[in-house]
Amino acid sequence: MKDAFGAPQSLLVLGGTSEIGLATARRLIARRTRTVWLAGRPSPALTGAADSLRALGAAVHTVPFDALDTDSHEERLGKIFTEGGPAGDVDMVLLAFGVPGDQARDESDPVAAVRVAQTNYTGAVSAGLVCAGALQAQGHGSLVVLSSVAGERARRADFIYGSSKAGLDAFAQGLGDALHGTGVHVMVVRPGSVRSKRTAGLAEGPLATTPEAVASAIELGLRRRSETVWVPGTLRVVMAAVRHAPRPLFRRLPV
Predict the structure, then answer these.
(1) Measured between alpha carbons, how far is 18 from 128 in angstroms, rounded to an integer?
(2) What are phi and psi of 56, to 5 degrees?
(3) Across 192-202, average pLDDT
(4) pTM
(5) Active site residue: 65, 81, 121, 161, which one?
(6) Which whole number is the average pLDDT over 132-155?
């Protein structure tokens, strides 16, 4: 259960090597989180991520998880919620997996484009519903979904990725409405461009942020029981203007 300050004592990260996911886990462990499950494809990176969190004092478990293997989601994720009984309740699920794809390649390779869509949307719908059902069954918990400002309006530069995030964002909002009043809190997080190992060397977008800043915003959003969190916060105003910009003008905006 969450403590008196609303901090989760247990956390499940879907996408166990995600930089934002791990930054969030570190921040919460520094508060009161004591048990962490990292779900991801078995790899040295997943093992190293678990070891780094154990060094901070948390009990960390790794769980084999592949966003594309939706047939396995109910069994593998459901076990996390059922094996420990009441003491094994999961206070927070962070849906942090996703792939950016390669727009230029994916436009000419439909199979690669579909993989982006299946990972970011179909896989997330499957895992999100499994976890939401388990949280509802235990009667409490938060589901935090990492969306993106790219989903607010598809840009020429990354419309395949952006469209997958738009679908995820709409799904998460609807799921939050469906779970309203059940004791389960759904929070959608919309970061801008995030500085990470994956984006090193690439041109940085305006209002770029960091995994640590996103983690801080997630923690604050949990305390406030927010439904939507923008990182940085000024993106809320910026994207309101972008969303309503006439299409001819939108096409001329910097990518």
Answers:
(1) 17
(2) -90, -5
(3) 72
(4) 0.92
(5) 161
(6) 95
Cα separation of 244 and 171, whole Å? Answer: 22
Render pLDDT for 165-181 as a digit per residue (tens, 0 to 9).
999 999 999 999 999 99
Determine whether 161 is an active site residue.
yes
Helix (H, G, I), strand (E, B) or coil at 69: coil
Name the one residue in this structure whose structure tokens are 């916060």: 233
pLDDT digits (tens, 9 = 90+) for 78-130: 999 987 544 568 999 999 999 999 999 999 999 999 999 999 999 999 999 99
- Return the bridge partners of 38, or none: 13, 62
Q: Are 120 and 164 in contact (CB under 8 A)?
A: yes
What's the average model confidence in pLDDT over 12-37? Answer: 97
Per the CB < 8 A criterion, the answer to whether 69 and 43 are in contact is: no
H or E element at residue 12: strand 10-14
Q: Which residue has the tokens 């919620």?
A: 81
Task: Give me the phi and psi of 227, to 5 degrees please.
Answer: -100, -30
Residue 38 Cα distances to 17, 50, 96, 180, 251, angstroms: 8, 7, 11, 27, 40
pLDDT at 210 over 70: yes
